[in-house]
């Protein structure tokens, strides 16, 4: 395809909090997508700032200046990855001698920019002398009284790709760069990330109207400069491209440890389960790393009426030849877009409804479109920041499981909403994830009842000498062996697979319990909807060091860790007490064999919990009060069982 025939692409980057998601992290993602090997006149990048922070705007303005050096440097010398932090921190990033001086120069410019942004972040505000650098800073003047949850619409074109002076140091045109902070008022529900996406869709329609939309979380930088062109291979396919609504990449991370301590990158899910969903043309939309056809994302149903080449005509979509908006000035576009991202615009409309990422994808598929799950073999297209503490990981999964379970209990349940519109296999595939929270209580029954019954001599399973022992042993053994072999084939180490079993156990016995209870309480009207919990992306050096050494991080007295520690202690009591009670009894080990095996596995998985309770003394251990509470609750459970 000739470059003039390529579709225009709008890139959406979303951030919500300048403390939890530092501005330097955000601009690294922005710079990585501004540097794509793609015609810059057909590329527009939008940053949605739900924190409405002048620090984030300052960082974006600084990045727009640095981009004049960074983009030509990357394209001239085929630099990868194109996130400055990721490139300069890469162990193999030593350039050839002829590039060494230039590399040091660009790195110096980047370090200076990063230092200015971090200095401003430490001060907490932008000084008056800096505000004169761009008219956008006037939006945070004192008379506007801007706060995170109460502010006017802010739309600022930081780089207007149509302008003659919007060029880099080589004289090549820069992509359009836009800052968007949608209006927020206390009396209006803003629908979190879904609302931010809706606002970006409307604003970008007015400004650039790219036929393809890429949406990214602010911590997920582009790792492949040709990712857009790869995705277009699906959209422009002459036979089936006209049916493709979106191309979804898996969530992959650059900071996963060798043995994936917290199971952040489940290879079996990425390589087997999600790929299987894609085989039905029903890939899950996971909210980031996804290329969308704007037509499908806006709710239009699939139509077989396409052009003669088997795909839609993309030529009408050009960022700098924009049809109705090409004659408008930057100020006119900004003012028109402010109306589109205001609270009143979407009040009482379909725009004003919060829709989960997974529901968005399912609705698109039920409208007749197909979706692609694409996991490139050469390298990950996008890399994010994985949680590097157990607490952050569990909070993240609590949020995911809660949102997914709400979908299952709503009118968007795939077995109902997708009936006759999605293949049965796709419906069941959706349910696999939507029912994460529902796995909590069956798991807790095995984790709590089995050891307590072992202490009291109550057999829950057939004894080893019984023929009925065989099916129980077969199911557990076959499932374990299959999971291990599949994990090794997908790229796990044995220790990595073991770590995943531990983390799944911890999620089901803590995060998913809270997800289930909170969701049911909301359905019954017993509690109000909670806020969107943004997971922290920054930790201390000690925490980072322990993470790299694969030492589990606890370090707090949260209710989650009290549950985790209590379950671990119940199983330890059950195993030790059971051995003491049944080892000497003739036939005792045969009678309680399966319960001994179950408790032994659970105790083995919880070894890091016992170490954190009794042996570690660093800041990442479990506090003493957690130990006393866990021992006390486990003892109370054993006493109540005896009664």
From TrEMBL:
Chain positions recorded as UDP-alpha-D-glucose binding sites: 21, 50
Active site per the UniProt annotation: 50, 357
GO cellular component: endomembrane system; membrane
Membrane topology field: Multi-pass membrane protein
Transmembrane regions: 433-455, 561-584, 596-614
A GO molecular function held by the record: cellulose synthase (UDP-forming) activity
Residues holding Mn(2+): 193, 217
Gene Ontology biological-process annotations: cell wall organization; cellulose biosynthetic process
UniProt cross-references to InterPro entries, sorted A to Z: Cellulose_synth, Nucleotide-diphossugar_trans
Source species, domain of life: Eukaryota
Keyword Zinc: no
Annotated localization: Endomembrane system
Transcription regulation keyword on record: no
Identification of the protein by name: Cellulose synthase-like protein E6
């Amino acid at each position: 395809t000739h470059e003039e025939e390529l579709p225009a692409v709008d890139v959406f980057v979303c951030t919500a909090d300048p403390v939890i998601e530092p501005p330097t992290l955000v601009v690294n993602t922005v710079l990585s997508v501004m540097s794509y090997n793609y015609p810059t006149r057909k590329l527009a990048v939008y940053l949605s700032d739900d924190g409405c922070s002048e620090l984030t705007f300052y960082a974006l303005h600084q990045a727009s200046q640095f981009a004049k050096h960074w983009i030509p440097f990357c394209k001239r010398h085929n630099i990868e990855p194109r996130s400055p932090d990721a490139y300069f921190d890469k162990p193999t990033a030593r350039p050839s001698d002829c590039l060494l001086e230039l590399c040091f120069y660009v790195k110096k410019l980047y370090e200076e920019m990063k230092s200015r942004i971090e200095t401003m972040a430490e001060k907490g505000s932008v000084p008056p002398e800096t505000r004169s650098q761009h008219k956008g800073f006037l939006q945070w003047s004192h008379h506007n009284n801007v706060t995170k949850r109460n502010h006017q619409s802010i739309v600022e074109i930081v780089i207007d790709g149509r302008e003659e002076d919007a060029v880099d140091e080589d004289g090549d045109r820069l992509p359009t760069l836009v800052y968007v902070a949608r209006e927020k008022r206390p009396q209006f529900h803003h629908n979190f990330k879904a609302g931010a996406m809706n606002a970006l869709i409307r604003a970008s329609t007015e400004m650039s109207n790219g036929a393809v939309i890429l949406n990214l979380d602010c911590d997920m930088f582009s790792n492949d400069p040709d990712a857009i062109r790869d995705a277009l291979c699906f959209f422009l396919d002459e036979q089936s491209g006209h049916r493709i609504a979106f191309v979804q990449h898996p969530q992959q991370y650059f900071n996963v440890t060798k043995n994936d301590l917290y199971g952040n990158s489940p290879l079996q899910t990425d390589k087997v389960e999600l790929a299987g969903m894609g085989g039905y043309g029903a890939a899950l939309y996971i909210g980031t790393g996804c290329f969308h056809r704007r037509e499908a994302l806006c709710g239009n149903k699939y139509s077989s009426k396409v052009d003669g080449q088997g795909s839609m005509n993309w030529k009408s979509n050009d960022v700098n030849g924009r049809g109705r908006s090409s004659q408008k000035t930057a100020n006119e576009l900004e003012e028109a877009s402010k109306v589109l991202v205001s609270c009143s615009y979407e009040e009482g409309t379909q725009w004003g409804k919060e829709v989960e990422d997974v529901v968005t994808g399912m609705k698109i598929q039920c409208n007749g479109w197909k979706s692609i799950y694409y996991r490139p073999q050469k390298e990950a297209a996008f890399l994010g920041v994985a949680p590097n503490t157990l607490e952050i990981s569990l909070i993240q999964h609590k949020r995911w499981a809660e949102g997914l379970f709400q979908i299952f209990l709503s009118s968007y349940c795939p077995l109902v909403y997708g009936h006759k519109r999605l293949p049965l296999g796709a419906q069941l595939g959706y349910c696999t994830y939507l029912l994460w929270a529902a796995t909590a209580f069956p798991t807790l029954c095995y984790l709590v009842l089995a050891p307590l019954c072992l202490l009291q001599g109550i057999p829950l399973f057939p004894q080893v000498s019984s023929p009925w022992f065989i099916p129980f042993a077969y199911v557990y053994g076959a499932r374990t062996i299959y999971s291990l072999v599949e994990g090794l084939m997908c790229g796990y180490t044995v220790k990595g697979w073991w770590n995943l079993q531990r983390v799944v156990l911890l999620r089901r016995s803590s995060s998913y319990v809270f997800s289930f209870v909170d969701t049911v309480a909301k359905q019954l009207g017993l509690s109000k909807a909670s806020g969107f919990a943004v997971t922290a992306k920054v930790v201390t050096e000690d925490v980072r060091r322990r993470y790299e050494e694969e030492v589990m991080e606890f370090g707090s007295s949260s209710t989650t860790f009290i549950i985790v520690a209590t379950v671990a202690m119940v199983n330890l009591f059950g195993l030790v007490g059971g051995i003491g009670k049944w080892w000497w009894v003739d036939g005792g080990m045969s009678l309680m064999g399966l319960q001994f095996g179950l408790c032994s596995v659970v105790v083995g998985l919880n070894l890091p919990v016992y170490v954190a309770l009794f042996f570690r003394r660093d800041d990442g251990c479990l506090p003493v009060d957690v130990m006393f509470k866990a021992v006390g609750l486990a003892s109370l459970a054993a006493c109540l069982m005896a009664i």
